[in-house]
Amino acid sequence: MAFFVDKGSIVRKIWGKGDTILFIFAGASAEFALNKAVDWLYFTGRLPADPLGRLFSTVSYARKIVFSEYHDALYAIDKIAAIHKDVEEKRGTPIPDWAYRDVLFMLIDYSIRSFEILERKLTEDEKIEVFDVFFRVGQRMNITGLPTNYDEWFAMRKEHMESDLIYSKFTADLYKQYRRHLGIIRYNLLIQAQTLIVPARVNVLLSLGKIPLLRPVLKAYKFARNFKLEGLLRDAILPAEYKKQIADLDIKSAERH
Prior knowledge:
This protein is an all-alpha fold and 257 residues long. The chain has helices spanning 10-15, 18-34, 39-44, 46-49, 51-67, 70-91, 97-118, 124-140, 150-164, 169-197, 200-206, 215-224, 231-237, 243-247, 253-256.
């Protein structure tokens, strides 16, 4: 049985653990807010109306790609492309290819950063493996101008962050929505997670600060994993009304490997 992502892949380990996914969300939520194409997310209204709902929707599609059989994964990718095409038709203009690339670049970068914060440093081969999965997703979506290898991606990622990010009225409004949906305590936990994971360019534009207060909490978290208490971190960050979706963030070990 062929899978889009091999069963032994590091990508399955990254996307199979709820806490890793939460850090991917923390980084992406920061960078999405700065992207010059964020007005597309305002056109649909989904992100500002329900940022947490969008998280779980995004996770659902990512899971279908990472853990499905090959043809089922292709179907999920094609569905994502069709959804975006529908939005383009409604707005009467295409989403820029650089905006599509930015999203793929974020998924690669924050997948790596999240795992390294919570688990261990990835090897170069493992980083290449992460790149390869999302490169194939981009190919299937017919995104133009994709880097062909990890080193090209690394260079393009830096260029994109310099040219495609800006603090705008959308940035300010999205952060208001994050605070409204999360509440002050969880919102501050999100900010701390973002301080830990985002690149320096993103940190500067958002004025997040350089001293992540969450770092000692992570040390306690890693110790708590010995007692199967790691779920406390996501319970602390996400509201109780998302209890079922929070529980579903973890993929069983047998499915990850």
